[in-house]
Transmembrane protein-like protein
Amino acid sequence: MASKQPQQPPPAFGREGPLSFMRTLSPSVSLYEPDTPADGTSSPRLILILSWFAAREAHIAKYVAQHRVLFPTSRILLVRCPLNHVFFPPGVRRQLLPAAQILKALLLADRDKNHDGAPGVLVHMFSNGGMNSMTLLLAMLREDRKHGHVFPRHVMICDSCPGYFHWQRIHRAVSHGLPSWVSPLIHLGLAINWFIGGFLLRRDAPPDRQARGLNDKTLAALQTRRLYLYGTGDDMVDWRDVEDHATRAADAGIDVRREMFPGGKHVSHARADGERYWRLVKQAWDGDAMD
């Protein structure tokens, strides 16, 4: 039977750009606030979208728009991972501060409330760029524990992530869409990073540390469900890394669901099979069994 196409989202593109309907809080953070806020647990109070590295606004806007269809009363907080987050990291925390403040406000509001374990936030994380943003936000929230927990109770969706450190795959992901002359510079940066971090300091590579942090017991205790969406045709994130991480997440006590897209490319699963993709997103939030 032919699959239905997902419902068409409301118009999201304005003259100023595809995300102009969102309020810009910093160069990397934007917020959409509906006229009628979410009430109860049928819709997330907040949807946190953590986009992939150097994602174009037109591509991000399609995900934002479809979330508006599924959850029309939910606020949407977008955190992007532009080029400067990788090449000029010192200023990243300042750019992410508005997002951290919104999450802190949720934590403070919930501190004295009993939600019986019901999640209030839907985290939609894309690729290792989104994982990098999530890691930074968690670090910022941990620095101020007066709100009680490290993160609001939530459901997490991992699209094309996490991927462990593989030299060529990381190089391919970072260099994607950049001029060819940048390629040697990226190789040099990877070499310096490996020499200092891996050889001198004997530390795991950043993607490996960040992936391990997602399964930290303090975060796992606040996560109601986790959905992994991944493809066997992904040339930037190895699907076997995703499955390994899902197994470790389940061992950490997280309710895990895995959905493979045969031949699926990097962050392209919604485009390849939109009906299935968004049905899974909705089921993940609702807690329905996956077909």
In short: The radius of gyration is 18 Å. Confidence is low (pLDDT under 50) at residues 10-15. The chain has one domain: 23-165+210-286.
